Amino acid sequence: MEAFLLDKVQRTDPIFLPSTGEWDPESLMKAQTVLEVLQKTEIADEDPWVPLDQSTSLKEVLEYFTKKQNCHRVFLRDGQGKVCSVLSQLTLLKFFQRKIDSIPVSLLETRVEQFFESGDSNYRRKVEVVPYSESACSAYQKMGFKGLSEIAISSSSGSIIGSLSGKDLIRNSSNYLTSLYKPVALYCGLESPDKRTCTRNDTLETIIDKFCEGNVHKLYVITPQNVPEGVISLCDILSVFLPH
């Protein structure tokens, strides 16, 4: 586990207390720089750099978000070519939410099952979960191995009780890395699972509201027994608005 957290650093590094040889999370935070993070992470693969002009059409932005792999945000350039703003998938969906009255009612009333019955989206993909008693560190490790930005947390009966994402690292920053040894359910301070779940019978309008009001990037499709059977991403929803 130490190897995972410390990326094979040597015990002579300042993240270890010289008196005991044990790793010190506070020193780790102080010793590591942003440059070191960039050197150890394939940033281009994780979230590619996509600069667009402010005059780029909405259709083109939608194509980037729905057809370019791992494109979660684009950077906007002004007339001088300088980056002036960032547009994320969630920000774009909130734009559509504000324009809800302009969207055909027939589209808004379409149910989840109808949208994803073709199997082209994540809807029928296996949901990756970790049990509530597993450590947060182990859960993050699984996310890293599988290239996930978020992972569901399940109860002993297999029902969804929450999820873990990078946001939880920020929430626990005051405890640094020591809190990673807590059970994942305790670590992330579970909220109501309703905010991150939906059913086959929910409509597009309901799904949009859940994404925007919960500021989430995924919704788990659950059965009547609260067991996950699929995932809906922001990319899935944005693709609905892309002209065909």
UniProtKB/TrEMBL annotation:
* Domain CBS, first and last residues per copy: 44-102, 191-244
Which UniProt keywords are present, listed alphabetically?
CBS domain, Repeat
Question: Which InterPro entries does its entry note?
Answer: AMPK_gamma/SDS23_families, CBS_dom, CBS_dom_sf
Q: Which Pfam families match?
A: CBS (PF00571)
Signal sequence region: none
Q: Which PROSITE patterns match?
A: CBS
Please state what the protein is called: CBS domain-containing protein
This protein's species is: Arcella intermedia
